[in-house]
Amino acid sequence: MGGCVIAIRTKRNIARFRNFLRRPFSDHLLALQAFVLLGMTRFLINCFSFSKLEQYLGRRMQESNTEDSDESLFHAKRISWAVRSVAPFTPWNSNCFPQALTAKVLLRKKGINSTLYVGAAFKTEEEGLRGHAWLRCGSYFVTGGDGASQFGAIASFSD
Q: Does residue 83 belong to any structural domain of this protein?
């Protein structure tokens, strides 16, 4: 049974890789940028306290506009694709926080405003307090939006 699961995962990854190769070269470059930035943001998260990182995240407890141009939305969706596609294949832990930071950096490079949210939820006594980070550009959740409804935002950072 275990060999069957591995074969299915391998086939799925091969199909994903083939689809990736069919994408335009600009998407390959964006995915490479996302991969490198995911590593850099993971390194910074591991080496610095949140209070040190916080000064680079944007204006605390501010939110960006919920309306954005079609061009900004286009770039936000491409960046979302790149970060979400690459994150599962990094040799380090690329969970919600490095994904949100990476997408924020890539959007900031394009001059696009976004809001990074840090949230928390108390699930069960055994699990305790859990954290989550997500990034919004306009009304579009670039990263982490699928789990955002389960968490209360305790901080937001806007460009």
A: yes
Residue 39: partners with Cβ closer than 8 Å, 6 or more residues away = 90, 92
| CA–CA dist 39, 45 (Å, integer) | 10
Sequential pLDDT tens for the chain (159 residues): 455 444 556 777 788 778 878 889 999 999 999 999 999 999 999 999 999 999 899 899 988 888 888 999 999 999 999 999 999 999 999 999 999 999 999 999 999 999 999 999 877 777 788 889 999 999 999 999 887 888 889 999 998
**Which residues form the domain of 74?**
49-159
Residue with tokens 């309306």: 67
Concatenated DSSP letters for 16-85? HHHHHHHS-HHHHHHHHHHHHHHHHHHHHHHHS-HHHHHTTT-EET----S---HHHHHHHHHHHHHHHH
Cβ-contact 153, 144 below 8 angstroms: no
Distance CA 118, CA 132 (A): 6
Q: How many domains does the structure of the chain reveal?
A: 1
